[in-house]
Amino acid sequence: MTKLRVVILDIDGTLLLSNDAHARAxxxxxxxLGLSADIRSIRxxxxxxxxxxxxxxxxxxxxxxxxxxxxxxxxxxxRSYAGSLQPAPGARELLMRLRADGIKxxxxxxxxxxxxxxxxxxxxxxDLIEGTTSSDDADSSKPDPDIVQAALRKxxxxxxxxxxxxxxxxxxxxxxxxxxxxxxxxxGGFWSDAxxxxxxxxxxxxxxxxxxxxxxxxxxxxxxxxxxxxxx
Length: 232
Fold this sequence. Notes:
The chain is globular. Helix content is 41%, strand content 12%. Helix 1 (19-32) crosses helix 4 (65-80). It has 2 domains: 6-17 and 86-220, Rossmann fold, CATH 3.40.50.1000; 19-83, DNA polymerase, domain 1 (Orthogonal Bundle). By secondary structure, it is α/β, with parallel strands linked by helices. The protein has helices spanning 19-32, 39-42, 50-58, 65-80, 91-100, 113-123, 146-155, 169-177, 206-211, 214-220, and strands at 6-9, 16-17, 86-87, 104-108, 131-133, 162-166, 181-185, 202-203. 49% of the residues are buried.
């Protein structure tokens, strides 16, 4: 039986209610560059890094000149929404409880390194995070496991002592491919519980996880990825 020693955290949609803002920023950035951009095709891709989203949504490589221009315009547009971004309910309270219990908190996000501090500040949790990994630390973004594996290396812990908290199917796939148990939150929007197949359990938001805090300890002791049941 392995005790929980590290929680790996996504930011967007998990700690910060920012997924819709990312989608809008890509649409507006695309339009500013004369590109066809449809929110209905972009919103389901939020949670992937730009290395995957840009080719899928716009049809060219993220490292191409158009791709770099689009990403720069998108980042500028997203930051213009900063004043409207809100932390996910209970995010700070959950992280404070985890820290009080001696659990390491490491971020694993598809966002770029330059954006991580900004996002954590908006989520009002930067002072609680012990380590961060971003798309700059990985060859490939979620749903590939690279970022989760990088977060594990930074934590110095084994996958058996870790749980990831995320809000998209891409978080679930990345965690499972890194052999890390994962639980999910609905506050990222868009996805249904059925989309979180492989998640041990799904909660409304970080505050809901805190209300069922014993789930985290129980999940870390599982030897298989069977579903946990949330107490009613």
